[in-house]
Design goal:
The protein is mainly α. Helix content is 59%, strand content 3%. It contains nine helices and two strands. A two-stranded antiparallel sheet has the order 1-2. Strand 1 and strand 2 form a beta hairpin. Helix 5 packs antiparallel against helix 6 and helix 7 runs parallel beside helix 9. The longest helix is centred in the middle third of the chain and has 35 residues.
């Protein structure tokens, strides 16, 4: 993190002793505390920040100055050495009233003995772990606070920052990566299925089944109240791999029944695939779900989410492979040599039939 951080450029005109700048900062504190927010991320309080969490250094300095010296700090005038001496004393010898465990060190920024910036903080009502769909409606509300702030020449540089917006950008990149990952994973899975089953029609039915499994898993996560966060974005691509297993085994057995066992009709092939691979698929589902279920005992949310995703993915994979994929093959699957890759590129593929 200490590599290529860049150089901070500070506004040389910044002067909190200037009455206009002083009032602009304290007014922004009040605006932040009072800002209404109708976005879903601000519910149920309907406020941008939680009540009593705004820390305003200059407002508390003003209250201290009036109580100690009997006059407002703004009467000292712009560039006043007395103002800065008293502000530095206040910074070193007092703490925020609402948060006595904190100090003014990071909120009244002193560089080389000079006050160069003032930080106003508040705890947002929005959950930092909320998905981007929630955060994107809250961000304009916070932008409005900055946009509406008075910006006199002595306090012209105003911006907001928070760790939550770093995650906002990260989540956006992860969502983009998820879409890209799915766009890569499905074609790769389709090619793998063709290679395993040697039949385009079986592969097409299998990829349809996999798409239904992935959709069902993400739908189950949505019913749990999850959004598309970090774990979900990663898991959405992983789910494709989990979903391929059972369909590829059953599809391969369906093709094997015709090419090597002499079964021609789709009904005979489907029956053969179920009898040869059904118990294996079921046993695999039980063992995988059993191993994944141990993570439900973990305390970290990431691991409990992964346990849920693994178990739900396996459950849907078993359900769709046996109750959707196999009946689909039974009713509309290829019979004889229909759909076999040798029909599309006979010069490059051979059936591999035994005489």
């Amino acid at each position: 993190p200490n590599v290529k951080r860049g150089d901070a450029t500070l506004d040389g005109a910044f002067d909190p002793a200037d009455p206009a700048a002083f009032r602009a900062i304290t007014d922004t504190c009040a605006a932040l505390a009072a800002k209404d927010c109708s976005a879903a991320g601000c519910a149920p309080l309907g406020k941008l920040v939680q009540t009593g969490t705004v820390i305003c250094a200059l407002q508390e300095f003003e209250d201290w100055h009036v109580a100690t010296h009997g006059v407002s700090a703004t009467t000292l005038g712009a560039g006043s050495a007395v103002f800065y001496d008293r502000l530095l004393w206040f910074r070193s010898n007092t703490v925020p009233a609402a948060f006595p465990t904190r100090n003014w060190g990071e909120l009244i920024g002193v560089i080389d003995g000079e006050v160069r910036y003032i930080v106003v903080t508040g705890l947002m009502t929005m959950d930092m772990r909320a998905p981007n769909g929630i955060k994107e409606d809250v961000l304009p509300v916070l932008d409005a606070v900055v946009g509406e702030a008075d910006k006199p020449a002595a306090a012209a540089e105003v911006f907001h920052t928070a760790r939550v917006w770093v995650w906002y950008a990260t989540n956006g990149a992860l969502l983009s990566g998820m879409v890209t990952g799915l766009a890569i994973a499905f074609p790769v899975a389709f090619c793998t299925l063709i290679f395993a089953t040697h039949n385009v029609l079986i592969a097409a039915f299998a990829i349809l089944t996999i798409a239904m499994i992935v959709s069902s898993v993400l739908g189950a996560a949505a019913l749990e109240g999850w959004g598309l966060g970090v774990a979900e974005s990663i898991a959405a691509v992983i789910v494709v791999g989990f979903s391929v297993d059972y369909t590829i085994h059953l599809g391969h057995m369906y093709d094997h029944a015709g090419r090597h066992e002499g079964w021609e009709s789709r009904e005979e092939r489907a029956r053969y695939a179920i009898l040869k691979m059904g118990s294996t698929v079921f046993a695999g589902a039980v063992t995988t779900m059993g191993s994944g279920s141990f993570m439900f005992a973990c305390q970290l949310t990431f691991f409990t989410k992964m346990a849920f995703l693994i178990c739900v993915t396996i459950a849907f994979s078993l359900l769709y492979s046996l109750i959707f994929f196999m009946p689909l093959l039974y009713l509309a699957g290829p019979s004889g040599t229909s759909g076999h890759i040798t029909h599309f590129a006979p010069k490059f593929f051979t059936r591999g039939d035994t005489e």
